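Side project, low priority. Logging it here so it doesn't get lost.
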Amino acid sequence: MLFESTINLEMEGADVIYYPDFFNKNDSDLYFNSLLKNVCWQEDAIKVFGKTYLQPRLTAFYADNKKTYKYSNVTMKPNLFDNELLTIKNSIEKKLKIKFTSCLANLYRDGKDSNGWHADNEKELGENPIIASLSFGAERIFHFKHRHKKELKKKLILKHGSLLLMKGETQHNWLHQIPKTKKSIGKRINLTFRIIA
């Protein structure tokens, strides 16, 4: 583990911190290969403007309780954390001094897989959701845009082994996305740790 460098993104009405080297390359490679093989990946159908589509990525949900997680008309039932996810979770909790109850994992298989504009503002995440988003594998561009001030935008490249922490009023004021890319790009795994009350 490294996590020496910390970048505060200094966004209006948000509290976002980026740790570009949270895990070193060796640990990140090991985690990526193991998670790719061992996570219970699934492809769910989501409803957008009344139409049903297959989600353009694979997901899995883990928790230390039996609470489901609902977004875009998908209800995810939790798997219990395995030892590896618990080790990763403990590393994050130790550094951030925050206890997480659950993890939504995403697998982006190539550049055609994406996640459209959204906020992680579901009721069960509490008033000011805290999301710790860990990336392994191919680098992807992460976009932010302010909900009301169209000129306020931000983008960053999420590196292999990096952690992005979003807290405070971020989800009230900003939307984020991982857009599609036509570039030939490898797989990316994203673990988003959350607190479900």
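Brief comment: The mean pLDDT is 93.
Revisit when time allows.
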